[in-house]
Amino acid sequence: MDASSVFNAGFLAALFASGVRQSVPLIYGSVGDTLSEKSGVMGICIEGEMLFGAFFSYLFALRTGSLWAGVLMGAAAGMLSSVIVAVWSVLLRQDQAIVGIMFNIFAMGFTNFLNRLIFGTSNANISVETFSHIPIPGLSKLPLVGDVFFNQDILTYLSVLLAAAVYFVLAKTKLGLRLAAAGENPKAAQACGIRVARFRFLSYLFCGFSAGIAGASLTLSSVGTFTEAISAGRGFICLAIVILARWNPLMAVVAAFGFGSIQALQIRLQVLGSSLPYQFFVALPYLITVLVLVLAGRNIRAPQELGIPFERERR
Predict the structure, then answer these.
(1) Are 255 and 245 a contacting pair, CB within 8 Å?
(2) Close Cβ partners of 13 (under 8 Å, ≥ 6 residues apart)
(3) What is the helix (H) or strand (E) element at residue 138, kind and residue range?
């Protein structure tokens, strides 16, 4: 098949519009992780929190008939599950990487258990209506970019607003400076009267809240149902996005759109047909993630105390 006949304007518009939709859970996850990591707590558990958000948002949307009830419950599930991690990582000062890995394993097993307990071995035929697209008057009519960026659902628009709000807090407010101090030099921050443990605990709760919405966007914006391991490694891609964006929420939106477009491209390449096995295309976004980190991840400075438990000095 001629490449020029495939990669035309219509194909690219559909590709990038799908890329925007694929990027939404990545935006929510990476923005929440940015805030958490600025305070010194790694968001390795985003994958598991996404699973909790995806399952409970789908369950409550199905039971109540309200998509917004599902979103709120997904956000609450993500935040409540993050309490477990925050207690172990911040208050009990355990290794954040180990806690994160164990939590992700627990979340996958527990959501699978609940899914089979409530819906049986398969709920493929049980679905909810997803959020409808809301075209922005005037802007949605622009050639190419109109349909790509200005004809999306409400969770897509809110993800960008959330990124802008977090950027403003981190860059323009005293709260942002205090969060940065907790991640860069917690001892100096404590000497200045900043309650480091409280800042870290609350910032990680926000990370769980945002990851829960990310999971809700998977079920209520994309597929309309819950499948086992629906997050499919997106939580780990969020970690890569935060590094590549250099802990800048607005740059995280751009990076998430790039990864979302790659995900959309691999789906379309499978549909077009190829002699390559489909597993290659499934693995393509993660392979590119690793390559981008290797090539563009040099000279990136993380918060100085990121991942290091803070123990308040005894007097």
Answers:
(1) yes
(2) 144, 147, 148
(3) none
Contact yes or no for 17/148 (Cβ under 8 A): yes
Written as one letter, the residue type at 121 is T
Closest to 313 in 3D by CA, of 189, 171, 154:
189
Give the whole-angstrom CA distance, residue 197 versus residue 202: 9
Q: Which residues contact 59 (CB under 8 A, 6 or more apart)?
A: 70, 73, 118, 226
Residue 311: Cβ-neighbour burial (10 angstroms; 0-12, 13-18, 19+):
exposed
Question: What is the C-alpha end-to-end distance of the chain, expressed in Å?
Answer: 74
Residue count of the chain, please give it. 315
HSE (CB half, 13 Å, CA atoms) of 164? Answer: 6
Considering the entire predicted model, what is its pTM?
A: 0.93
Contacts of 292 (CB under 8 A, 6+ apart): 240, 244
Question: In the numeric block, which tokens belong to residue 134?
Answer: 């809301």
- Contact call for residues 70 and 12 (beta carbons, < 8 A): no
Distance CA 105, CA 115 (A): 16
pLDDT values of the chain reduced to their tens digit, one per residue, 315 residues: 444 445 677 788 888 999 999 999 999 999 999 999 999 999 999 999 999 999 999 999 999 999 999 999 999 999 999 999 999 999 999 999 999 999 999 999 999 999 999 988 766 678 899 999 999 998 988 888 888 999 999 999 999 999 999 999 999 999 999 999 999 999 999 988 899 999 999 999 999 999 999 999 999 998 899 988 899 889 999 999 999 999 999 999 999 999 999 988 888 887 777 677 777 777 888 888 888 888 877 778 889 999 898 877 644
